[in-house]
Amino acid sequence: MPTPKRNNTKTPTVGPNDLGKLPPQAPELEASVLGALMIEKDAYATVADLLRPESFYKDQNRLVFEAIRALAAKDEPIDVLSVAEKLKSQGTLVEAGGALYLSELSRKVASTAHLRYHAQIVAQKATARDLISMAAKIEEQAYDETQDVDELMQQAEAGIFEISQRAQKRDVTQIDPVIEEAFARMHKASQNEGNISGVPAGFHALDKITSGWQNSDLIIIAARPAMGKTAFVLSMAKNIAVNYGLPVAMFSLEMSNVQLVNRLIMNVCELEGDKIKNGKLTNAEWAQLEHKVNELRGAQIYVDDTPSLSVFELRSKARKLVREHKVRLIIIDYLQLMNASGMNFGSREQEISIISRNLKALAKELDIPIIALSQLNRNVESRTGVEGKTPQLSDLRESGAIEQDADMVCFIHRPEYYHLYNDEKTGKDLRGLGQIIVAKHRNGATDSIWLRFRSKFAKFQNEDETFDDDLPPLPTAGNVTISSRMNQTMSPDGATQDNGDGVPF
After folding, report:
1. In angstroms, what is the C-alpha Rg of the chain?
2. Which of 26, 310, 332, 461 could form a disulfide with 341 if both were Cys (CB 3.0 to 4.6 A apart)?
3. For residue 297, how far is the Cα from the chain centroid?
4. Do the Cβ atoms of 205 and 191 come closer than 8 Å?
């Protein structure tokens, strides 16, 4: 009988890729972590910041961890018996594998020395599953032609941001290296002129209060319409980029890039807005324009005019600006025009709260100051007198969240806008002046300073720079003097505001 031929073809090994990809998981490590939590008295505190029930892939492990967390929340002992009793009281003991499974978990652990390392792996696997789940959802929606692509991109960005926030954990740091870093910053600041440790605004009196805008700070600059918010930050951006040579970025949600640059040209070249807009310049003014505009050429001012910018888009763009252009300060004009697309909110106040919280987190992450302009509500308009018209923290629109998250809140107040030309207490001539009020300063004193405001050129300057041609005449008996409000429209509450094309208030 002939010997059958041997078949040398090897049977292929069946692996995960043949049956379909398996979700990232580490069941053995999950069991090890749970066992360690039930045999070590203070083990839960070691992993409390890393793990949540969703971190566990196996359903029974998730139930066991939920029971452990419930015991820890009430400061009750955590062991096999107490966990079994907790599961039993919740009616999930059988679903969690029963008392036998709990005892097996505890027997598998020889040491709890590597507990946190094992927990980190379990958490990373959970993050990978979250990313896969989100990507699958986005893929499914992307095939749906009824979906708005821009909205889908916002949702994707919001989803990734939420996952990254959950995954970010910072270990506790012993104080010694922090002290060394603080000393190093103090020594560096002592070598700067005027004891400026942050990014200088270029307004001497303000820089004296703030020591410059400080890294990781969220600064809110708020005012009513027509007070000069944009003029103030543009004057400051010019000082920072041109006078100090520091890169600065500005996100303009209200105006286009060209409108913003036109205002910068007005500021630097000292030409009126109408002439910049219609080009009706004399030969001398053309020469002045061509000469002074060279100050702006090559300046490290980066402008983005994306309308209705989301906080997630801002985050992505800001990281790139800091990484590629070493930007030292970011300005947002203005906060209430931002959105948090891709997330659901019960009210606009809740959305503003998310936006302000994320701006603070971004400033901390990038370690640079972020300045966000904000509107004030109409309470100011109903009050009278010099002091009555002065803004207060309660005047901030959606004030609770903004005031809480900001490291510093500054107000811009121009009394002459309300036809208040003299301070009754000091006799100070208020014409052509703008008051910068530091109403909240988490790391310093609150105070107020005065700046010279040249309305024709939308320009703030130090108070000692006086220009008589900008001052309106004082009111006389029988006459009412109205401050210049060219190219402005009436808002619904009766206050004038800039229409975006004329004098930049």
Report:
1. 31
2. 310
3. 29
4. no
DSSP letter assigned to residue 468: G
What is the per-residue pLDDT for 342? Answer: 55
How many angstroms separate the CA atoms of 69 and 78, rounded? 9
Rounded-to-integer distance, Cα 382 and Cα 419, Å: 15
User: In the annotation, is 254 catalytic?
Assistant: yes
Calpha distance 169→25 (Å, rounded): 20
Separation CA 134–CA 428 (nearest Å) = 61
Name residue, tokens 């004296």.
Answer: 208
Outline where DSSP puts E strands in 144-230.
218-223
How would you class 101 by CB atoms within 10 Å of its CB: exposed for 0-12, middle for 13-18, buried for 19 or more? middle
Q: So what's the pLDDT on residue 20?
A: 63
Instruction: Note the pLDDT of residue 400.
Output: 67
Cα–Cα distance measured from residue 258 to residue 264, given in angstroms and rounded to the nearest whole number: 10
Tell me what pLDDT residue 173 has. 62
Does residue 369 contact residue 213 with C-beta atoms inside 8 Å? yes
Q: Yes or no: say if 174 and 180 are a contact pair by the CB < 8 Å rule.
A: no
For the stretch 477-488, pLDDT in tens is 433 333 333 333
Active-site residue, from 85, 104, 162, 254: 254
Instruction: Report residue 161: phi and psi, to 5°.
Output: -60, -45
The residues, any chain, with a CB within 8 Å of residue 192's CB and separated by 6 or more, are none
The pLDDT score that the predictor gives to residue 159 is 77
Distance CA 60, CA 50 (A): 19
Name residue 301's beta-bridge partners. 248
Count of positions (residues) in the chain: 505
- The position carrying tokens 């988490």 is 442
Burial 207-223, CB ≥16 within 10 A → b, else e:
bebbbbbbbbbbbbbbb
Which residues, 6 or more positions from 209, have their beta carbon under 8 angstroms from its beta carbon?
Answer: 438, 441, 444, 445, 447, 449
